[in-house]
Amino acid sequence: MHWLQKLQGLCKRWGTHMFNHALHIHARQLTPLQWGNQELPAKFNFASNVMDHWADMEKAGQRPPGPALWWVSGDGDEVKWNFRDLSELSQRAANVLSGPSGLQRGDRVAVVLPRVPEWWLVILGCIRAGLVFMPATIQMTAKDILYRLQVSKARAIVAGDEVAEAVDTVAPDCPALKTKLLVSEKRRDGWLDFKTLLQEASSAHRCVETGSQEAAAIYFTSGTSGSPKMAEHSHSSLGFKAKIDASTWKDLQVSDVTWNVTDTAWIVNLICSLMEPWATGACIFIHQLPKFDPVVILKVLSRYPINIMAGAPVVYQMLLQQDLSSYKFPHLQYCYSGGDTLLPDTLEKWRAQTGLDIREFYGQTETGLTCRVSKTMKIKPGYMGTTIPHYDVQVIDDKGDILPPGIEGDIGVRVKPIKPIGIFSGYVDNPKKTAANIRGDFWLLGDRGIKDQDGYFQFLGRADDIINSSGYRIGPSEVENALMEHPAVAETAVVSSPDPIRGEVVKAFVVLAPEFLSRDQHQLTKELQQHVKKVTAPYKYPRKMEFVSDLPKTITGKIQWAKLRDKEWKNSGRVRTQ
C-alpha cells in the first residue's frame, strides 16, 4: 500500500474537518472585471472555488461515489482519492509549504516530480498558499536546473531522487533558493522530508484569497530556438478558464475516467490531468509509467475503466506497432491527441484496428488550448479542429489582417481590444518579447496554417520553418507526414537546406525503423523520394536526405527543427534570408 493511501485512512479515522468551508469565495460576492465576453471575478482560487466545491458536493451526497484521482504505480500499487480526500491532503500540503518550508505568498516553487500523487498535492498546495508553481521535467540536466533556478529566483524546489543530486550540485550558485523538499522514501542532508511533514501537518488551512489576475504558475517554453522563456499564467487563465470550459464544452462528465499520457512538466498535463477534469468533477487516472512502455499502456486500457485517453501522436504510433488484436478496450470511447501533428495515416490505422477515432487539440504554453475536435464534431484527417469557445483564432497576413479561407498565413488568436480568459500574462521580465509577438490585434502562435470554409485549421509548420524553394512554399509537416507513411521511417524532421540554384530545398533527416537499418541507403533514399512524390505534390519531395540515429530534442521531447536548420545553413557559410 502506498504511504499516502495510509495517510488518507488516518485522516478519515481521526475525523479531520475542512476548515475553510466557510471561506469559499463566491463570484457573486466579488467585484467583477470585464475580460473578453466573460465576467471575471476579482478573486479566484481553484483549490477553494472548485476542489472544495466538489468536496462539499460529495459530503452532501450530490456527486456519485468514486475517485477523483486514481493512481497506479509501476508495481501495481494504487491510490484512490475522492475530492474530500484531495481537499484535506492538499490543505496539509499547503501547510507544509507555508509552515516549515517558510514560503510566503508570491514565492516561486520549482516542482520537479514524475507521475506520483505528490505532484498533484504540491500543485494544489501551492494554489492554496498563493505560491507560484513552476513544473519541470525530471529529464533535466544540472545545467537545465541551474538555468531555471537562477532566472526564476525560485525560493524552493520540490523534487525526488531523480534530480536531487543535480540540484545539490547547482544549489550553491542559486542564492534565492532557500528550501529543498524531497519526495522520497529516503532522507537526504539539506532537504526537508515531504512525507514526514505531510503526515505531521494540520489539515486545516486558511486558503489565500488570490486575485484572479495574480500569478499562479510559470512554465518554461520548450526553447526550440534560444533559451527557454518564462511564461506566466494567472489564476484566471488556468483555473477560472477551466471552470468556464466545464460549463461550455460538455466534453467531460462527472462519470468520466480520463487518462492523459504526458509528462508532468507540460502545461497540457495541468490542463488535461488536473484543471479541466476536476472543474467538471471527473476522475483523472494516472499511471506512474517509470519508463514509457506501449505494452503497459495497452494492458492498462484493457484492465481499468478509462473511457477517455489523451496523448501525443507518437503514443498512438507506438501503440500501433503492437498486436492490438490481443487487447480489448471495453470502456474506451474517446481518444485525443495534441502536442504534435497527427498523421492521417495514424488516424486511419488506429480507427481500423480499434474502431475508435482520434480527435486533435492544438495550443501552446502561452495560450492553452486554442483549437480542438470535440466529441460531436466531424473529424477531418490532417485538420486540428475549430476554435474553442471564447477564443477568436484566425489566419492572418503580415499586416495582421484576416485572410480568407484556403489562404496560407500565420495562425493567431485575438487579444485586442480585450484579451480573452486563458491567454497568459506575459513573459516574465521580458515585456519586449511579449509585445513583439503581437501583430495587429492578434497573438502569434508561431505557426503557419490554413483555415477552411468550415472553420477547421490545417497546420503547415512553424512560421520560420516554411521552405521557399524556387518560389514554392513548402510546409515541413506535409513532407514529414508523407515520409511517415513509409514503413522504413521511424521518425523524421524536415528543414530547409541551402541550394545555389533554388535558393533552398527540402532536406529530410530520417531515423530508420530497425528492420531497414541494413538496407542500401542510396537505394532507400530514391525509394523514399518516389514515395513522397506519389502521396503529395511532387515539388515537395526531399532533394536531400540524411539518415541519423536520433533527432535533437528539447528536454520535453520536442524536435529542435531550428537546430537542424541552423546547422545546415552554418555549414554552407550562407545566411538564410527568410
Description:
- It is an enzyme of class 6 (ligase).
- Its EC number is 6.2.1.2.
- Its cofactor is Mn(2+); Mg(2+).
- It is found in: Mitochondrion.
- Its main location: mitochondrion.
- With about 575 residues, the protein is an alpha/beta fold.
- The protein has a domain at about 465-570: 2-Layer Sandwich (GMP Synthetase, Chain A, domain 3), CATH 3.30.300.
- It is built from 16 helices and 29 strands.
- It has a 9-stranded mixed β-sheet with strand order 4-3-13-12-14-15-16-17-18. Strands 6-5-7-8-9 form a 5-stranded parallel β-sheet, with helices on both faces. Strands 19, 20, 22, 23 and 24 form a 5-stranded antiparallel β-sheet that branches.
- The chain is globular, with a radius of gyration of 24 Å.
- It starts with a helix and ends in a 6-residue tail after the last helix.
- About 45% of the residues are buried.
- The model is unreliable at about 10-35 (pLDDT under 50).
What's the structural blueprint in terms of helices and strands?
Blueprint: H1 3-14, E1 32-35, E2 38-41, H2 46-59, E3 69-72, E4 78-81, H3 83-98, E5 108-112, H4 117-129, E6 132-135, H5 142-152, E7 156-159, H6 161-170, E8 179-182, E9 192-193, H7 194-200, E10 215-220, E11 230-234, H8 235-248, E12 257-261, H9 267-280, E13 283-287, H10 294-303, E14 308-311, H11 313-319, E15 334-337, H12 344-354, E16 358-364, E17 368-372, E18 386-387, E19 393-396, E20 409-414, E21 426-427, H13 431-436, E22 438-439, E23 442-451, E24 457-462, E25 467-469, E26 472-474, H14 476-484, E27 489-499, E28 503-512, H15 521-535, E29 544-547, H16 561-572
Parallel strand pairs: 3-13, 5-6, 5-7, 7-8, 8-9, 12-13, 12-14, 14-15, 15-16, 28-29
Antiparallel strand pairs: 1-2, 3-4, 10-11, 11-21, 16-17, 17-18, 19-20, 20-23, 22-23, 23-24, 25-26, 27-28
